[in-house]
Amino acid sequence: MAGLAIICGMLVTTSLMSLIIALYWEKNLMISACFLLCFGLVEVAYFSACMLQFHKGAWYLVVLLVVSMTVMLSWHYGTVKKYEFDLQNKVSTEWLIDVSPGLGISRVAGIGFIYTDIVAGIPAFFSHFITNLPAFHQVLIMVSFKSMPVPHVPESERYLIGRIGPKDYKIYRCIVRYGYCDNNIRDTGDFEEKIIGAIGEFISIEQISDIESMVSAEEKMMIVGNSSDGNALVPLMNDETCNEISITNEAQISPAVIEESDHTLLASSSSCNKRKKVRFMLPPASSSPKMGESVRKELLELIDARESGSAYFLGQSHLVVRDGSNYLKRFLIMVFRFFEKNGREPPVALKIPHAALVEVGMICTI
After folding, report:
1. Residue ranges with strand state E in the chain
2. pLDDT digit string, tens, across residues 224-252
3. In a domain, 72, yes or no
4. 62 in a domain, yes or no?
5. Which of 97, 296, 349, 358 has the fewest C-beta atoms lying within 10 Å of its C-beta?
6. H or E element in which residue 61 lies
7. Domain co-membership, 45 together with 143
8. Number of compact structural domains in the chain
9. pLDDT digits (tens, 9 = 90+) for 151-208
10. d(CA 315, CA 125)
11. What's this model's pTM, rounded to 2 decimal places?
12. Claim to verify: residue 7 and residue 104 sit in the same structural domain
């Protein structure tokens, strides 16, 4: 059994190496074929010899191979089908703009974070949500995570920010890029603050920058880093007691700024455990003279929505096989649904509070 495992590993290595020679190194196909034949024939001979001992224990390794390949193939097939369903059933930005007056959609205070895999258009589960419950938050942020083929993505290039629809709708898209060595970027406690800070930077430089179309022709995206320089939003770290927070904020902020955004700076609750870890304020007008009134107004609305609370929308798609499908397709989807239900980490692993989590279920017929 050990010999069969070793020779199978050697066969896979030889096959992949021949592909690297032809595709990555861009060598002549004849060189790749000669490499495959030279080493492959020897390994095939060893493989045939090992198969003679199949009934003496090598069958167990073949069974493990079949089981593991079935699990991986089922998971890949189900994931691809769910993504294709999202792409085919997404709605355009124009749909949201046109349907809003007809449905009588209401805007409620707060920020709605919509987690989706697609990077253009409105996800199907959110259109399903607002069709049945015509209301969404004062500020909407579509959040997507995209892996990059690099070890690390620097903080200055991590966020792609764009605007969806007219400015009055206050709908933004945030694509969070990460490398294969950047672990748990969505599980950090300040993840929400970083996104809000990046959107604040986007709002402040949108009018003076030439935004490129990085996702689609309808949506313009901009690379935005962390707002550590405080050009758009100034983060304020809360202390341990509510009284100390109020005194500190009043002492450090000028009267003009307090008068402009007092509802976002002063403590309004005696319960400290309900307060946000980080609060935001606008920089004084003297330190940002180029910031227009419209920009300051939009930033203030973002701060006000942040203070009102956040909700997190997650799509929960359930794959259903169409009648008349073959048995292989039914089997793959059955295995995928089993492992999706019993083997995936729950959504609250994103450090999303249970009370703020909204899961929208949809039936995906494939």
Report:
1. 106-115, 135-147, 159-164, 171-178, 221-224, 234-237, 278-281, 310-320, 357-365
2. 865 444 567 777 765 443 433 333 333 33
3. no
4. no
5. 349
6. helix 58-89
7. no
8. 2
9. 888 888 889 998 888 888 889 999 999 888 887 676 656 778 888 888 988 888 876 6
10. 6
11. 0.73
12. no
